[in-house]
Amino acid sequence: TTKIAILISGRGSNMATIIEAQRAGKIPGEIVLVLSNKDGAGGLALAKQAGIPTAVVASKGKSRAEFEKGVQTALEEAGADFVCLAGFMRVLSEDFVVRWNGRMLNIHPSLLPLFRGLHVHEQAIEAKVAVSGCTVHYVTPELDGGPIVGQAVVPVKAEDTPDTLAARVQKAEHLLYPAALAKCLGGEPEWDVQPGILLSLR
Ligand code: GAR
Fold first, then answer.
1. What single-letter DSSP state applies at residue 181?
2. Which of 22, 70, 106, 171 could form a disulfide with 27 if both were Cys (CB 3.0 to 4.6 A apart)?
């Protein structure tokens, strides 16, 4: 069975939905580690509550090579063979990404290839698009550029602020990530059909 590690930097709401889906038998794998690059990440407490081993590898004050060595060691010690980036806000080096090629997913809060990088919801509002959403993709050295596993689409409203749009996109993320992960691990992807969210897996 696949041993999954989830990498976070913050709240961990996507991490929590993956844990929940795994508990419900919807993910063919086990979660062996939640790792944060930030000591105070809210997701760490949620993971601990769920009884999942956690680790902190601080990125602050370290070179990228030193940081990534720490992450790689923690992943190996946990026996992880698949990695989910879930609100993990550090860019990983080409060496690290290549080592996990085909075994590392990321979720990004836009319909890639539109709006890569940061301040995604500002970008979407600025562009006056009528829909936005989220993308789960394999991680490759090209930032936010790897093969797409699935996307979920939500409306963008004229009165949206970055915060209101972010909240709508996050609901879609919570449907998409567990379904996309299940598919990548060879399972039967399942998700609730919800009004205003169109989800599609490739
Ligand atoms: C999510 O919206 C995710 O798409 C985004 O960070 C948020 C994390 O929320 N990721 C990125 O912007 C990656 N560049 P969470 O900690 O509650 O899952």
1. H
2. 22
Two structure tokens written together for 24:
């419900």
Quick check: ipTM above 0.85?
yes
Question: Around Cβ 4, how many Cβ atoms within 10 Å?
Answer: 26
Q: Which residues line ligand 1 (CB under 6 A)?
A: 8, 10-15, 43, 86-87, 107-109, 134, 170, 173
108 tagged catalytic: yes
Out of 108, 121, 137, 174, the active site residue is: 108
Q: What is the spatial distance between Cα 135 and Cα 173, in angstroms, rounded to a whole number?
A: 8
State in Å: Cα 86 to ligand 1 middle.
6
